[in-house]
Amino acid sequence: MSKILTLEEFSKKAVEDFVQTVVFVDDKIYSSFSPRPSNEKKKASGSPKGRKPATKSADNTLDVSTETIKKFDTDLVLSPHDIQISFAKKSIVCSLHQPRKTDSVGITSNTYKLCSAADIVIVDWDLYGDAGVKPTL
């Protein structure tokens, strides 16, 4: 005899049994996180080939995120690694996609092709401050 599941338990089990791929689309998925603490000093290693040297300091990146968390405690800020690991724990492959501001979202775009191949697509509503224009196309 099988156990009677609540709607929530049934929904979670159905997702775990069916969903294999997720695409997470966000305009700040990589740019809002620094791989090192803000108080760690940069090493003078020069600019990567083909890039201009940075003119702004990124040392306060973590402090800004902390202020944002304090101001809007309902917004959860996760690193790209945390996002992927949370899906991996359920045996779900998660692709993180940060389209360029100028990228198209039409049916020939890379974003569209990536999203059309996934079981679930999670899209940031406000891509590059467009108030939902691109996500609703």
Summarize the structure.
The protein is an alpha/beta fold and 137 residues long.
Stretches where pLDDT is under 50 for at least 5 consecutive residues are 34-48, 54-65, 68-74
Q: State the helix count.
A: 4
- Tell me the fraction of residues in β-strands, as a range: 5-15%
Note the gap between the termini.
48 Å
Helix content: 25-40%
Q: Count of DSSP E strands?
A: 3
Mean pLDDT: 74
Overall geometry comes to elongated
Characterise the protein shown here:
- The chain is an alpha/beta fold and 137 residues long.
- The chain contains 4 helices and 3 strands.
- The protein has helices spanning 7-18, 61-71, 80-88, 110-116; strands spanning 21-25, 93-97, 120-123.
- It has a 3-stranded parallel sheet with strand order 2-1-3, with helices on both faces.
Keywords:
single chain, 137 residues, alpha/beta, 3-stranded parallel sheet, elongated
Present the secondary structure layout.
Elements: H1 7-18, E1 21-25, H2 61-71, H3 80-88, E2 93-97, H4 110-116, E3 120-123
Parallel strand pairs: 1-2, 1-3
